[in-house]
Design brief:
The protein has a single domain, classed as Roll (Pnp Oxidase, Chain A), CATH 2.30.110. Helices cover about 30% and strands about 35% of the residues. The protein is built from six helices and nine strands; from the N terminus they run ααββββαββαααβββ. It has helices at about 5-10, 30-40, 85-90, 120-130, 130-140, 150-160, and strands at about 50-55, 60-65, 70, 75-80, 95-100, 105-115, 175-190, 195-205, 205-210. β1 and β2 (about 60-65) form a beta hairpin. The two termini are about 30 Å apart. Bound molecules: flavin mononucleotide. Flavin mononucleotide binds near residues 64, 66 and 143. Flavin mononucleotide binds near residues 64, 66, 83 and 85.
């Protein structure tokens, strides 16, 4: 297989649906809920996975995390506060989220600012996680260099042994949630001939202004 030939010849035609400023919901959160439900119903793999982009000094950085709740219009995800992303958002709270739902030929981009979620939310969510994930969150120094897979497994096993007599594990302070407060949404629906539909919502003085962008 010649990879460049394959890349040049890979062409998908988008013709599932259309999306118009007159038919979308005037509230972007309601529109997001609708598209998210469509993604769940269309059997998209991990429909709650999104690319979280952050800024480190002036450079962009991105990785996938999971959306774990929407509270009063803000999007929640959980992670290690000492991770690279944790440090990046401490320095610059501006982030973007990108959802990709390929079976629906849809993308949603959201921009906003982020802050830590209340400790009680983090505690509550931590308690709902399987014990193995809890041990992993306690044991793993996320984003730090480790010498080998063995070192990582030793960290996990040592933590498992340390807490073996404890039925309920306490959330470690280095792990918890963030809430992203959106100020911009873009809903993208793939269309034929690359003439895609793009509807944006911009927050102005607490209200949402809708516009269409060229593809
Ligand atoms: C499908 C998927 C879901 C993920 N979900 C999370 C998550 O919810 N929280 C998290 O910290 N990392 C998650 N990760 C791992 C991150 O992509 C990333 O490797 C990790 O958070 C370290 O990122 P950082 O070094 O930029 O901080 C997920 C990865 C994938 C592929």
């Amino acid at each position: 297989m010649n990879i460049n030939e394959t890349l040049e010849n890979t062409r998908v035609s988008y013709r599932n649906a259309d999306f118009d400023i007159n038919t979308c919901n005037p509230n972007p959160q309601t529109q997001f809920d609708k598209w998210f439900k469509d993604a769940v119903n269309s059997n998209c793999d991990e429909p709650n996975a999104f690319v979280l982009s952050t800024i480190e000094q002036n450079k962009p950085r991105a990785r996938v995390v999971l959306l774990k709740g929407i509270h009063q219009g803000c999007f929640a995800f959980y992670t290690n506060y000492n991770s690279s992303k944790g440090k990046e958002v401490t320095d610059n709270c501006h982030v973007s989220m990108t959802f990709l739902w390929l079976p629906l030929q849809r993308q949603v981009r959201i921009e906003g600012t982020l802050g830590k979620i209340g400790a009680s939310f983090s505690d509550e969510y931590f308690q709902k996680r399987p014990r193995g994930s809890q041990i992993g969150a306690i044991a793993s120094p996320q984003s730090q260099k480790v010498s080998s897979r063995q070192e990582l497994e030793k960290l996990f096993n040592d933590t498992e042994v340390k807490y073996s007599g404890q039925s309920e594990l306490e959330r470690p302070l280095h792990w918890g949630g963030y809430l992203i407060k959106p100020s911009y949404f873009e809903f993208w629906q793939g269309r034929e001939n690359r003439m895609h539909d793009r509807i944006i919502y911009e927050n102005h003085a607490g209200g949402w202004m809708l516009s269409r962008l060229a593809p």
